[in-house]
Amino acid sequence: MFLLPFICLSQITSSLIDPKTPVQARPASSPVDSKDRWSLVFSDEFNDTTIDPTKWNVETTSRKRPDIVVKADPEQVEEKDGNASIYYRKSKTEDNTYFAGRFNSKGHFATTYGYLEARMHLVKPDGYQTAFWMMPDQEGTTAPKGVTDGTANDGAEIDIIEGNKAVDKYSTGLHWDGYAKPAHKSNGAMVSAPGLYTQEYHMIGFEWSPTVLKFYYDGKLVRTIDKPTLIPQVPHYIIFSGSCFGVNDWVTGNVLQNKIIQDGGTVKAYIDYVRVFKQNDKTD
Description:
Blueprint: E1 6-7, E2 38-44, E3 57-58, E4 61-64, E5 69-72, E6 77-80, E7 83-90, E8 97-100, E9 102-104, E10 110-112, E11 114-121, E12 128-136, E13 157-162, E14 169-176, E15 185-192, E16 202-208, E17 213-217, E18 220-225, E19 236-244, H1 259-262, E20 267-279
Parallel strand pairs: 5-8
Antiparallel strand pairs: 1-10, 2-20, 3-9, 4-5, 6-7, 7-8, 7-20, 9-19, 10-19, 11-16, 11-20, 12-13, 12-19, 13-14, 14-15, 16-17, 17-18
């Protein structure tokens, strides 16, 4: 039986669609002969001068790593010149403290199924990374109300892209059943991404149906997950984030040895637009 896709908000309102999004906008991976398959339900072209508070929460958070503290605040996210920028900086007043911007759509927009696409520029990892991802819009996030059922069906961290290595590859994956061991489970894979850091913008896409997850890079399918227990079936919201790392085995480099950051410089990632589409038909 086909499960009708839905959005957790009771109604799609015009405020969720940026009036500057082209009327004929479709996913980059969508063939010409399937142009009527998708309907736009959410978009932000980031063409104003302020992050839209009706769509996004700019995070004020603090995360402690073994050797550094990473903070986010409104000063690290800016909408300007047609982009939403995420800044990476070293604190001028706190030892071993670094800033990296984050913003999310929790409480404003969440979806179950659809096609998400962001045209964006990631920082080349050197003790920091950029990510475009999703989280379940529910109590207990990836382990709802503390229940660990062994599947991602009841919610998972969905990593559409994490630019963690300074090569033409990036990480995609899922995390579910919470983050505490031994219940925590994950399914990750690196995918090929030619020109990831040598070209300014790339189209990052994610197609989600009741039966399959598909990851796209510049319109090309780079990964498919179709195991039934790994397909989330609950609403998720969108996150764009930066993060910094000291000594680690996840991200290329160490921010404590990053000369630009240590000398007081600023590095930025930026998003040209994000769009979310829903299917008009009953195909996956």
